[in-house]
Amino acid sequence: MRINYVAVMAALAFGSSTLSAVAADDVRQGHIEILTEKKVVVWPRIYAERDADALDEFLADGFKMLQPDGTERTKAQEMQWLRETPPDDEVSDFLFTIEEILFAADNIAIVYGQGNSTRTTDDGLPCHHNYTSSNTFILQDGVWKPIFSHVSGVTCTPLEGSP
């Protein structure tokens, strides 16, 4: 019986690369699920509860936030803001919708999307609050942590029927 060694080696190589691709896809899907949970559930909960200690653990040490007005806040400044700002009891319907998660490398992911909630304007009128956010996460010691956040396009459109 003659065995075509080239064919066998090609089949093994193809099978191995296919298994590697499937394993890589499974790992990537796992990262997507973790990042989604962190952005959609964990981060909003930390802010809603005004838990500066949880924020300290959540954010990467070099974290920076670029505000809608172009100013920058460091991790320490963000934690201080969270400690000093009273909870916004009006916001009970906040929802962040991820538009996409992009991987720049195996340990760098950009999560971007839209935040929406009902709030009040400075004049006390109910409004639909909306913003766009992009957040860069880094994988540090096996844990995804935000290192950069940029918020833009913040609007608060008065709701129909408001005076």
The poorly predicted ranges are none
C-alpha Rg, in Å? 22 Å
Secondary structure class reads: alpha+beta
* Helix content class: 25-40%
Mean pLDDT: 86
The CATH topology name reads Nuclear Transport Factor 2, Chain: A
H-E string: HHEEHEEEE
Total number of beta strands: 6
Shape by Cα distribution = globular
- CATH architecture, please? Roll
* Share in β-strands: 35-45%
What topology, given as strand order, has the largest sheet? 2-1-6-5-4-3
End-to-end Cα distance: 89 Å
Model description:
This protein is α+β, with helices and mostly antiparallel strands. The chain has a single domain, classed as Nuclear Transport Factor 2, Chain: A (Roll), CATH 3.10.450. Helix content is 38%, strand content 37%. It is built from three helices and six strands. It has a six-stranded mixed sheet with strand order 2-1-6-5-4-3. A hairpin with a 5-residue loop joins strand 1 and strand 2. Helix 2 (52-58) runs antiparallel to helix 3. The longest helix has 45 residues, at 5-49. The radius of gyration is 22 Å and the shape is globular. The N and C termini lie far apart (89 Å).
